[in-house]
Amino acid sequence: MRSSTHKYKQQHLGFSLVELMVVVALISIIGAIAAPNVVQMTRRARLTNAGNEFVGAMQTARMTAVSRRETVSLCPTADGTTCANSAGTRWIVLTTGNDVVRDINLPPGIAVQGSPNLVAANFRVTFGPSGFSKAGLGAAAPTTATLAVCGSNITGINAMDVTSSMGRVTTARRAATAACANPGEN
Q1: Helix (H) or strand (E) holding 63
Q2: In the structure, what pLDDT confidence band is assigned to residue 185 with cuts at 50, 70 and 90?
Q3: Cα torsion for 117, 130, 112, 47, to the nearest 10°?
Q4: Whose CA, among 2, 25, 35, 158, lies 20 to 30 Å from 77?
Q5: For the chain, how long is the longest CA-to-CA vector?
Q6: Strands, sheet with 159-165, edge to edge from the N-terminal-most edge strand
Q7: Residue 5 confidence (pLDDT)
Q8: Rounded CA gap, 68 and 117, in Å?
Q9: At 22, is the secondary structure helix, strand, or coil?
């Protein structure tokens, strides 16, 4: 016969309902604190990716211009085959022979603005056979062109300026004061 004290010495495995509720509450609190940071981190990653796409597009345009010995442009497009005259969410690298070398589609929440000289040049960054860049097509066009890639729904540093100066491509991060302010106008 078993003794009654033996029943009370047995270990009970598992969690009580109170312990489970405390763990769920802690996970909910941590999730509520972390969720906004994850959203901002995702938006910043999209901004960085879009900026890097423009860096790659400018470098592709330059290499294509030098290797083919022809003028190549980075410009906005509406149809994917010709240059448009205003900034949009789709950009192409286009040769003088109308070959599209690269096509960029910006993710939602990302916009592009240009420096004043680039706006005057219909947002076209042109690379000649020598590899040098300019804003627009004219012989007297400025040799520096800057695109501002911006995220209006990003807090803090929400713009990445991509500049081509004499063919050298550089980037800089900044906080745009407007939804997507033109570079150099903040």
Answers
A1: helix 17-68
A2: very low
A3: -140
A4: 158
A5: 107
A6: 110-114, 144-151, 159-165, 168-174
A7: 54
A8: 27
A9: helix
Query: How would you class 170 by CB atoms within 10 Å of its CB: exposed for 0-12, middle for 13-18, buried for 19 or more?
Result: exposed
Residues in the chain, overall count: 186
Give the integer Cα–Cα distance in Å for 156 and 158.
6
By the 8 A CB rule, do 121 and 101 touch?
no
- For the stretch 101-123, pLDDT in tens is 999 999 888 889 888 888 888 89
Q: What is the pLDDT of residues 66-90, one digit of tens each?
A: 999 999 999 999 999 999 988 889 9
Instruction: Report whether pLDDT(42) > 60.
Output: yes
Distance CA 20, CA 94 (A): 61
- Name the more confident of 37 and 87: 87
Cβ contact 126:71 at 8 Å: yes
DSSP 150: E
Which amino acid is it at 124? R
Q: What is the DSSP letter of 16?
A: -
